[in-house]
């Protein structure tokens, strides 16, 4: 059991809820409302991605089979892909 992964997972879960459900886009770094084509889609996409990552991190922390580095590399890769997608599809 890795407590650090579980803590990061809970943090991502809270952020996913705030951004995806409550539409608190001010939590997004560098968010400029004037440049985003669809604010609702952006919040849903980012919130869903953070929720998915939180589930992976929490389960990985409970099982504890792999080292935390693998999970964090996976999380960074997913977030990098999300940033690329958002900048290509949702930002003018």
TrEMBL record:
UniProt keyword annotation of Membrane present: yes
One Pfam family, short name: DUF3784
InterPro entries, A to Z: UCP037672 (IPR017259)
Record keywords, A-Z: Membrane, Transmembrane, Transmembrane helix
Transmembrane annotation, as ranges: 6-21, 42-64, 70-88
Superkingdom of the source species: Bacteria
Protein known as: Exonuclease
Taxonomic source organism: Sporosarcina globispora (Bacillus globisporus)
The organism's taxonomic lineage, starting at the top: Bacteria, Bacillati, Bacillota, Bacilli, Bacillales
């Amino acid at each position: 059991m890795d407590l650090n992964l579980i803590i990061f997972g809970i943090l991502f879960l809270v952020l996913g809820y705030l951004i995806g459900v409550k539409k608190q886009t001010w939590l997004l770094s560098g968010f400029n409302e004037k440049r985003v084509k669809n604010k609702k889609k952006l919040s849903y996409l980012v919130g869903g991605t953070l929720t998915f990552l939180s589930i992976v991190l929490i389960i990985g922390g409970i099982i504890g089979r792999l080292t935390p580095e693998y999970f964090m590399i996976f999380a960074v890769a997913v977030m990098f892909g999300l940033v690329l997608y958002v900048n290509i599809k949702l930002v003018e």
